[in-house]
Amino acid sequence: MSSHRALDYLESLPGTTFTRLYAQPSTALAVFRRMLPHLAKTIVMAMLYMPGPFAVADLETWVKPDVESVKARDQAISVLQRLRILFDDRGDGRKAAGLAYVLAPQFAQALRRALTGGGEHGSFGVPATVRPQDGQEKVSISFLDTLARRQWEAILYFVVGSASASLVGEVPVSEGTKALLERGGFVSRHGKRIAITKQGFEFVLQEINAQIWTFLIVYLEMAPQLQMDPIEVLAFLFTLGSLELGTPYSTATLTSTQHQMLEDLSDFGLIHRPPSTPSLYYPTRLATTLTSDASALPNSSLSPQATSTTQPAPGSSDKGYIILETNYRLYAYTSSPLLISILSLFAKLKTRYPNLTTAKLTQSSIKSAIQSGITADQIILYLTTHSHPVIRNQTPILPPTVVDQIRLWQLQDERMKSSEGFLIKDLGSEADFEAAVRYAEALGVLKKVFRGKGWFFVSRMEQMGRYFKGVAARRKAEREGTGAA
Fold first, then answer.
1. CB 284 within 8 A of CB 294
2. Which residue in 179, 248, 346, 446 is deepest, having the highest Cβ count within 10 Å?
3. Residue 95 pLDDT > 70, yes or no?
4. Sheet with 280-283, side-by-side order of all strands
5. Structural domains present in the chain
6. What is the pLDDT of residues 424-455, one digit of tens each?
7. Contact, 201 vs 370, CB < 8 A?
8. What is the pLDDT of residues 11-45, one digit of tens each?
9. Contact (Cβ atoms closer than 8 angstroms) between residue 287 and residue 241
10. What are the C-alpha distances in Å from 36 to residues 13, 79, 81, 275?
11. pTM of this prediction?
12. Which of 196, 38, 48 is nearest to 116 (CA)?
């Protein structure tokens, strides 16, 4: 989820901004590690030291002709092109223009420097030497985890607390953070009252890594209003993802935009700046996991056994805590007030014990959640993702009758579903139509197919536009080749 949000944001950037963005080796490495599927990484590494373009025909020999392999190839090429990493080679006046690929020079150079450690760019931060002083606070990994947990949970408590006034975090939420939450649509203000929104429900139901990126995307979008350069903001976030937890870094090499970010990131729990040495900053686990799949907040209040005094345990992982029975009864093995409050958004709480809360999914509780903006699919996904290890090996994990009923309760109020997108028609031959449909399906943008009319509906057009241009270029090259023969 987190990488998808960041990918969507990168796709929205003008093409010229990628030249600046990929100038930093840390950014190129972060995009390579976090945004690319496995096959795309393989293609990039194969081309990184190639002396010339990579012929499309050669790439096709790498991939099996079965449907799944072709789909994976198309997805990999699409992601690389959308991120302006891969381009059609149209140089040297070749007749077969468009039948080979080249890497973006700026990206390739930056990635090579990142992998080999070349240059003195300092894009991976400048570690600082700290000499212990009397009375100076000791900055340990445990301390950083506790600080990050408290800061991030304060944000979650504020969002969920807008639906449950009894919830309050351990530390106050800054006014700037509140403004971001309101700007992102996670909460809405009605006079003096603040209420959780549909986006807010979706936000709190996400995994922590996804929550962080969702929030940071709002921060990036608001950067121009804060007199900050969005590209420098994004580059610094990618840099933080490459830093080492527990290591102090100097602020001397940071730009004015990045200096301005430090206070905001401290409010979010991504960094710590010791009051005694403001020229240093420590990235927390929230920051160092921005470009990885590691848990961003071990033993947080989103962990089943977490309490307000829980100390983080590095290396631990969050476990599921929910058991759902066929009679709609729900058993939540948790002592976390935040998790219990999230459950109360769509379930009717029954009994609470020190480490167990019982609840029940009812028509009224589900409809109340739906009316507030949460969807049946979000509820089902949350229950599945946070299912107890005891039932996680079952197939299916959740009782099918309960899953169907949750969806039926939503359908009772929603008879029609609308989707924004683009209608594609008049493709010529049936073979062209089927090939385009398969490509759209491989990209994950296909919404509806009208085979009788030769139409299909997609959610995105940019990738399909490149596909049609590529088909046209190949056909032109084939015609020129036939004419020359």
1. no
2. 346
3. no
4. 249-250, 280-283, 271-272
5. 2-116 (1.10.10), 141-288 (no CATH), 322-411 (no CATH), 422-484 (3.30.70.2610)
6. 988 878 888 998 998 898 888 898 899 888 89
7. no
8. 888 888 898 999 889 999 999 988 899 999 999 99
9. yes
10. 17, 7, 11, 39
11. 0.75
12. 48
Give the alpha-carbon dihedral of 377, 378, 380, 386, to 10 degrees: 160
Bridge pairing between strands 322-324 and 357-360: unpaired
Which ranges constitute the DSSP H helices of 89-161? 105-116, 141-161
Run of H or E residues at 475: helix 462-484
Residue 466: partners with Cβ closer than 8 Å, 6 or more residues away: 78, 81
Encode pLDDT of 169-188 as tens digits: 567 889 999 999 999 999 98
Q: Phi and psi of 247, rounded to 5°?
A: -95, 130
Element (H, E) at 422: strand 422-424
Peptide bond into 396 cis (omega under 30): yes
Q: Which residues contact 317 (CB under 8 A, 6 or more apart)?
A: 295, 298
| Residues 90/98, Cβ–Cβ less than 8 Å | yes
- Confidence at residue 133, expressed as pLDDT on a 0 to 100 scale: 62
Least Cα distance to 149 among 338, 342, 15 occurs for 338
DSSP secondary structure string for all residues of 72-91:
HHHHHHHHHHHTTSEEE---
Predicted local confidence at residue 310, as pLDDT: 38
Return the residue matching tokens 């403004």.
Answer: 179
